[in-house]
Design brief:
Elements lengths: L2 E8 L12 E8 L10 E9 L4 H4 L18 E11 L9 E7 L3 E4 L6 E2 L6 H5 L4 H14 L6 E5 L4 H12 L3 E6 L2 H9 L5 E4 L5 H8 L4 E6 L3 H8 L2 E9 L18 H6 L3 E4 L9 H13 L7 E5 L4 H6 L9 E5 L2
Length: 338
Amino acid sequence: MGTINRQWLLRRRPQGIATTEDFEYREMEISITQDLAPGELLLRNRVFLCAPTMRNWMNPPADNLYPSMSLGDPVMAPAGCEVIASNRPGVAPGTLVTTFASWQDYQRMGASHAVAQLPAGVDLLDAMGVLGVNTLTAYFGVLRVGRPRRGDTLVVSGAAGSTGSMAAQIGKMQGCRVIGITGGAAKCRWLLDELKLDGAVDYKAGDLIQQLRDACPKGIDVFYDNVGGEILQAAVEVMNRKGRIVLCGQIAGYNDAQPTTGLRNMMRLVYGSITVQGFLQRDYADEVPAASAELRTWFAAGKLNARVDARPGFMQIPQTFSALFRGENAGTLLALVD
């Protein structure tokens, strides 16, 4: 008898926000005692990160530089896993790792598939949450791309979200005046009361450009963008000369049928000598161990405030993922495999 492997497959390309009907549940029998090829690992997936960019991966293949999931395949996702069996030197059974996996219980990984072993004292929830890819993305986006100087005005969109809240706090640690953009009075209060930001702008409250001008009387030096769309355009209108725009995400357009459109008023960028740069966390892969160590030190010292929204239940994974786009999560959204 084999072992039952539960899977969630991509049944169809979502139109707008992904719903449960876009996914298909399947059980299949697999052998977890079968010999492994050289370098191969057998992983038990324990925690999945629900990341907004996964919605991009569900779109049809195109010349867009990001991956596209195949219909009928398990849904790709960053994961925290336990090594069940190993034929890879240096990776013993029982080791906890993070990697790119998919929505299923068990997974075989070939010799070329990279995994990162967890440092001593770090569990899977921390590795996928407060110390995970979202926090590392914020770290590199602020420090390597935005390059803020003490006294700069840093504005972060999606500032109450997983990546945005980390970017805002890291900016504060660099001596910046930090303004967060979010939606709703409750989230604005959280930015001010819990994260101790210098200001909060509610994009739902009307005239975003004027709100930004009021909150940033000396203009914006660095804009860390997780949202795109009209929020990005509003920030452009308030940017200072030689300002830096960090393109981390474009969640405002992830559910659109067409690719996100570009900026208007491009000559402001030209005459303002404004830099616009996209990036990925993996661009700085060689720096991850040092960055992770520094982040662990900051968390241990109480310098960073993180929220993790961990939701149990393999059968609930599609609903958990959809919560991202309904604004129902509070912090980094994780799906726990039971």
